[in-house]
Request: fold
Amino acid sequence: MTEETPVATRFIQFIDGLRRHLRALLAALVLISTLYYFLSPILLSSLQHHLGQRLAFFSVAEPFLAHAKLALASAIFTLIPAISYCIWQGLAKPFGITNHSLGWFVLFTCCLFYAGATFCYTITLPFGINFLLNFQSHDLKPVISVGKFISFVTIFILAFGVIFELPIFMIFAGQAGLVPRTTFEKNRRYAVLAMSIVAALLTPTPDVINMLLMGIPLYLLYELGILVMRLMRL
Reply:
């Protein structure tokens, strides 16, 4: 694939390549979700203990659906290495990623995803939930739905994992000739603005402390991406 090939054409080829792996990924997702469903009571108990919450349900089907959602999110979390491999393998031919580089891309994609998910689970979620529940009073007591609790927790954990992929996609953009390093260096102010918006949207509370807990790591990851691009002479 030459650099003269239009970017849109290369992305179409990437999507076509990705479709070949889609059936296997979906089958693995169903199988692993089924296995995790039987472990979901243990996982839910662990989440409740970690975040200090007592949960309730308001419909007959809600507990089943909550366990199913938790099993699905756990399966996605487990399959991140396979998903990463399929994505980068699909990008390899259209964007000229060598087999050697492919392994590093997959490795660091997984590391960054799990780092972001861990950061959210251990720091952001506990702070955010405690802040929100501080609004309770003598006349206002929280009754938390198990379904909404699972949706809230899993979406934020997975979202933080994806957001922490910023450096690897910066490196990919530089290596593929899509965005040079100088563009990232010259547009730091716009990057900070974009990160502030993302932090405001993704953090579970609107307070400054939780936004900083997301915004500061994002900016450090942005600078890390620039540093690695400089070392790689991109």
User: Anything to note?
Assistant: Residues 7-231 form one domain. The chain has nine helices and two strands.
